[in-house]
Amino acid sequence: MINNRTSLAPRHEVALDCIEAGINAADPTAVIDSNVALAGATLSIGGDRYDLDAYERVLVVGGGNAAGIAASALETLLGNRIDDGVVVTDKTVSSDRISVRAGDHPIPSERGVENTRSVLELAKEATASDLVIAIVTGGASALLAAPAAGITLDALQSTTSALLESGAPIEAINAVRKHCSSIKGGQLAKACAPATTVGLVFSDVVDDRLDVIASGVCTPDESTYADALDVLDRFDVSAPTSVSSHLESGVDGAIAETPDSDDPVFEQVTQHVIADNTTALQAAATTAREAGYTPLVLSGHVRGEAREAAKTIVAIAKQCLYTEQPVEPPAVLLSGGETTVTVTGDGEGGPNQEFALSAAIESTAPEITVASVDTDGIDGVEAAGGITTTETATPETEAQSALDANDAGTFLDQADARIYTGQTNTNVNDLRVVVIEAPDQA
User: Is 442 contained in some domain?
Assistant: First the structure.
């Protein structure tokens, strides 16, 4: 999976094994196989059962990084029980009964808009006699792009770019996205009503918040147009006139709010989170243990500025190294979540690369190795993340300058410290692995 694995230093083997195990555990085929079953005409998802013979049609809609492979796995399971389907993803696969169509991530594209409209068209055909299976995965906020009336794709693209560079947390970004869209913020569920709708959710957000994952396409939206305008103001995002005018019209009541929890469209909607960051962390922990290291999962909820979060994680690693608390080396510290980057420079990279470079600068201990990746394989650019030791940040002055310029990617590339996986076809947020060798083993 890690395309440049042979070029990375041999001492990184344990960290790289953990990264691969975590991503593989979130593979959509494995997840569908573990969480969705068919016995005769009975479809089982979690503790819920659906008699497929009771429905006139079974339709599949949705989108996200994992949507294509998940759709293929679902089709393998259900076969001709599926009558029709459309999903949008960034890596298409062949499928007989579900149309797997292309979109782009993290910035929405024209083809994504066109194909998202096809998702909505099929959803609106659903009746009370139908079962709609909605595949909802990380990355769908960009891939399921259907601008609200009056907002152009160019305006949506520039707003999305500015939000991603602002350092705003994902829930704030999605408050704006929901109110600039005709599918987000529960509007896919609204299109599917009155059909029975079942969500298969791959979570890429902290706390598995259904209203944040994929901008809550099948979830009641408690945010408002006023909240969206407040995000633009708080994070100093200059949006195009068509976007700000649309949001202001919503505040004035000229445009209806997105459906909230009181809306009857959600009465027939059930969602199941079938993969999340814990899925990756548990697999990585098992791999570390099998390699002879004591694993410790710190948290799957790490947030905040990437470079600052790295300092905290490294501080815990040093505590382990110097005091054997909270765990004695050799050990592997595991964490996940979603850090952010406030972009002030014009360099290259993403939050995982900034995390890895900041950790290298902070570490000062040769026994500590830090790997950080986005499980979708794309950390701002065509790299999943980075892997570093304190030696990577040599000379430290140049490393710090690169970090200050948001150019961690370039620095790590020159140090042969980037991790390249290509698209992984899944997305369960960031995965960080910190390997602490016993002092006599380093």
Answer: no
Instruction: Say if CB 59 and CB 85 are below 8 A apart.
Output: yes
Per the structure, how many domains does the chain have?
2
CA distance 27 to 25: 6
**pLDDT at residue 436 tops 80:** yes
- Tell me the residue length of the chain: 442
CA distance 341 to 343: 6
Using alpha carbons, select from 64, 290, 270 the residue that is nearest to residue 183.
64
Q: Report how far residue 258's alpha carbon sits from residue 411's, in angstroms, rounded to the nearest whole number.
A: 43
Residue 207 falls in which region: left (phi positive, over 0), alpha (psi -120 to 50) or beta: left
Omega into 330 within 30° of 0, i.e. cis?
A: yes
- Kindly report the pTM of this predicted structure: 0.92
Structure token pair of residue 144: 């399921």
Say if residue 95 is in the same domain as residue 205. yes
Does one domain contain both 284 and 204? no
263 with 399, same domain: the answer is no
Q: Where are the alpha helices (DSSP H) in 81-169?
A: 110-125, 140-143, 153-165
Instruction: Report in angstroms the alpha-carbon separations of 252 from 155, 208, 261.
Output: 21, 32, 21
Do 434 and 321 contact (CB within 8 A), yes or no?
A: no
Considering only CA atoms, give the Rg of the chain.
22
Asked if the structure places residue 318 within a domain, the reply is: yes
- Pair of tokens at residue 76: 């393998």
Asked if residue 392 is part of any domain, the answer here is: yes
* CB 337 within 8 Å of CB 303: yes
Q: CA nearest 65: which of 379, 422, 424, 380? A: 424
Q: What 3-state class would DSSP assign to 149?
A: coil
94 with 130, same domain?
yes
> pLDDT, tens digit, for every residue of 11-65?
799 999 999 999 999 999 999 999 999 999 999 998 999 999 999 999 999 999 9
Q: Is residue 148 part of a domain?
A: yes
The rounded distance, in Å, linking the Cα atoms of 378 and 374 is: 6
| Dihedrals phi, psi of 16, to nearest 5 degrees | -70, -35
Provide the CATH number for the domain around residue 348: 3.40.1480.10
Task: Note down the domain range covering 136.
Answer: 28-275
Judge if 52 and 145 occupy the same domain. Answer: yes
What distance in Å separates the CA atoms of residue 176 and residue 289, rounded to the nearest whole number?
42
- Boundary of a domain, candidates 233, 251, 275: 275
What's the CA gap between 353 and 96, in Å, rounded?
39
